[in-house]
Design goal:
By secondary structure, this protein is of the alpha+beta class. It contains eight helices and 13 strands. It folds into two domains: 140 residues, Trna Endonuclease, Chain: A, domain 1 (3-Layer(aba) Sandwich); 102 residues, 2-Layer Sandwich (GMP Synthetase, Chain A, domain 3).
């Protein structure tokens, strides 16, 4: 039986209600969050790749798949690829004016995204999360957040396996009197803070929810505030991989969120 991936499910939901903007945004959010496998003409050379491309009505497209098995099935054999986040693929293709051929001929989510759609996605995801410092006065249970946002946040954190031990969503009142919500990430891996903050920022950018503001902060498990978050917050557990991820077809040392150079 063919596996139905999260991207397949998001695509089906979008296709079922073409006029639903929220469903369309959820698909793009899932696409940006997914690990994608970019089909190459030859093995990557460092941070330089040569993607396989084709033209449709004067538009050049490259081929990406959300499973290695789907890429191999399309190619008819084992083939070289680079593993990147959907965000990274969008940034890379937008810079070159290329379109994206997703899961062509091998999945129900098969579709062509022309270069304007890719450029739009890259533009939405472009802003980096702003850093700020503020003193917390009070934490309280989260209130008033849409169920769809909570579900999307759970899925996004579930895809960040090994980057932290857990996270807590709580309401917050700052010393300034400003109120909002905070996602407290506990025991993040060294260097993972930026990727986690960017992942939450991308989700909010594509949530389709007005004023969907959420601050992200990082704490050690032994910090007193971590215990406070555990008492009042909604807990999210991040999966812990048994071994470090190793994508054999990815270029050695390639950051999955940083686009390689095209050749």
């Amino acid at each position: 039986m063919t596996e139905t991936t999260r991207l397949d499910a998001a695509h089906a939901a979008m296709e079922a209600v073409p006029e639903d903007v929220a469903a369309r945004l959820r698909f793009y959010e899932r696409l940006a969050a997914s690990e994608l496998f970019l089909l190459l003409e030859e093995e990557a050379a460092g941070a330089t790749v040569s993607p396989r491309s084709f033209a449709v009505e004067g538009q050049n497209y490259v081929l990406v798949f959300d499973r290695e098995e789907r890429l191999a099935r399309f190619a008819g054999r084992e083939a070289p690829y680079a593993a990147l986040s959907g965000r990274g693929v969008a940034e890379m293709l937008a810079a070159e004016g290329l379109g994206m051929g997703l899961n062509l001929d091998v999945a129900p989510s098969a579709m062509l995204l022309p270069s304007p759609a890719v450029a739009w996605l890259a533009g939405v995801l472009e802003p980096e999360p702003a850093e700020a410092q503020a003193r917390l006065r009070e934490l309280h249970p989260p209130r008033g957040l849409p169920e769809g946002l909570l579900t999307a946040l759970d899925a996004r954190l579930a895809s960040a396996a090994g980057l932290a031990s857990s996270a807590y969503l709580a309401g917050v009142t700052y010393e300034s009197g400003e109120r909002g919500h905070i996602l407290g990430v506990v025991d993040a891996m060294p260097g993972a803070e930026a990727a986690l903050a960017r992942a939450v920022s991308d989700l909010l950018q594509l949530s389709g929810i007005e004023a969907a503001a959420l601050d992200v902060a990082f704490f050690a498990g032994e910090d007193p505030i971590s215990a406070r978050l555990a008492r009042v917050g909604l807990r999210f557990d991040l999966p812990q991989p048994e071994t470090l991820p190793n994508s054999a077809g990815a270029a050695p040392g390639m950051d999955p969120d940083t686009p390689p150079r095209l050749r």
